[in-house]
User: What shape does this take?
Amino acid sequence: MAQISEGGIPKSFSEEAVDESLVTEYIFDKPDIEVLIEEDIERDEHGDNLRDAVAVPIELGLENSGTWFDLDNGDRIWRLKVRIPEALSLEAYYDEFYLPNGSELFIYNSDGSQFFGAFTHRNNKPSGRMSTELILGDIINFEYYEPQDQIGLGSISIKDLAYRYRDVIGYNSPDINGSQPCEVDVSCSEGDNWVDQSKSVLRIRSRINGQFFWSSGTLMNNTAEDCKPLVLTALRCAIDGNDMSNEFEMDQYRFYFGYVSETCGSEAFGQFNTMTGCAKLGDSNDDAGTFGSDYLVVELSSSIPLSYDAYYSGWDASGTAQFGGGVGIHHPSGDVKKISTYSAQPTSAPWGIPNTHWSITWEATINGYGVMENGSAGCPLYNSDGLVIGTLSGGISACNEVEPGGVNQPDLFGKMSYHWSENPNPSSEKLREILDPMGLNTLVFNGADNPCEASSISEQEQHQFLVSPNPANDRISILLDKDYSQLTIHIIDITGSQVMSLSERYNRTINVNVSDLMSGIYVIFIRTDKEEYSPQRLVIKN
Assistant: This one.
C-alpha cells in the first residue's frame, strides 16, 4: 500500500539509540460505542452514509509530546505512541504537517508488522493539513526522523484520530469481504471488458463534522485532456444530516486507487495507492437530490502519479438511454472494488423531482449477482460504450440472502445529462463548465489512460513547494525543497491570465508581496531551467 510514500523502514527498527522503554504511551478514553451502534442501526435503516469511525481529539505533536532520541551523527528521532482502548483501527488527521527536505515520517502498529511511509517533503501541502492510512488495533506509533541540518524545521501536529469501532470493510476479519455475499469482484471475468473503467473508480474516505464515511467516485477526463485530477461523486457523500464537509475536511479526504481483490473471490487485496486532499469545484446544490440529480466534483490536491496507472473516464451527457446494457463499478461497504451488470435499457425516474435519474435493475452473472450497497454511493454507471451516464444516489437492491427478492429491486443514478446543466446551481458549477473547459459543446467525450502524455513531466522531475500563509492577504513565503540559483515564478488568476511574474536569484525561502492582488483564487507555477514544480493553489483574502 502507498500514499505517495517513498518506502523504506523506520530507522528505529535498526537504531540501537532508540530505547522503546523510554517511549511514553498516551492513553485516551474511547467513545461510547453502544450509543454509536444504536445510532448506526437507525442510520442504516434510512440509507444514510456508511459511518464506521468518529474523531477522538488528541492535540499532540512535536512541540508538546513524544520522546526525542539523539543519534551519534547529530540526527534525531521523535517517537509518539497513542492508545485508545478497543479501537479496531486508528487514523491520524493532522492540522500541521510540514516535513523538511531529508526528513521522514512513519506510522505503524504495536508490533511493527504494519507500517506506512516514508512520508517526506513531497507530501507537504500548502494548507499544512494531512491524513494518513488506518493502522489496525488500538495503538498507533508515530516516528519522525530529522537530519542534523534540518533540526527544528519540521512541524507535525495531530489534531485527532479516527477511532474505527465498526468493521464494515472487513479489515479485522479473516477475509476482506465486508460487503454482501452476492457481490462480484471486478477481478472476476465480468470485469474483463471493463479494465480501463475500473482503473478510474476510487474508494473515498470522507470526513464530515468529526465522523468518517466510505463512498465511491470516478476520475474523469475533460476536454482540455490535461490530466486534471477531477473526481465525480454524489453530493450526498459529503453530507450527513444538516452537516456538509467544509474545505478543511475535504483537504483531508483520502482517495484509493486500485483497491481490488488479487483474484476473483480472493480473500486478500493487492497493492493499492492513495492520495490525500481535494477541493470542491462544484455540486448540484439540490439538497443531495431533492431538487436535482445529486453530484459533486472535486479536484485532488496534486497530480496523479503515472505509477498509479489511473484511467480518466469519458462521459455521455446526451440523455439518450442506450440499449446494450453496461455496468456499475463501486466499493460497497468500503469493500474491494465490485462490478454489477445490467442489460435492460435504463428508464427515466424521479428522485425528488421528475426525470433526474436513471433507474437500473441488475442481473445475475457467472460469479454472482452484483447489487448496490451503502458505500456504493457516488459510483459511476457506464453504458455499453464504456462512458459514464450517471452517478449513484441510492436504491433498494440487495442480495437475496440479506433481503428476499432484493436483487430484483432498482437503484437510481443521477443522470449525466441533468448534471450537465439542469441543476439549481451557479453556472460556474455546472458540470459542463468543469468537464468542457475548452468550450467544445460536446455531450459525448471519450476516456483516456494518460490524456496529457505528450506534455507531461515525469514524477522524478516534478517537485512540490509550500506556500504560507494560505489564505493570505499581503505577503507569502514560498518554501522550496532545495536552493536554486535561478528560477521563475508565475502567478495566474482563475481566468488563466498572468498577474505576476518574478525571475531572479533565490534561496530556498522566497518572500513575495501579494498585497496588490484582489481577493480570489490563484495558481502559482515555479520553473527552473531543468525542473518544474507541481502548481499550488493560492487563496487571497483582503
Notes: The longest strand covers residues 50-61.
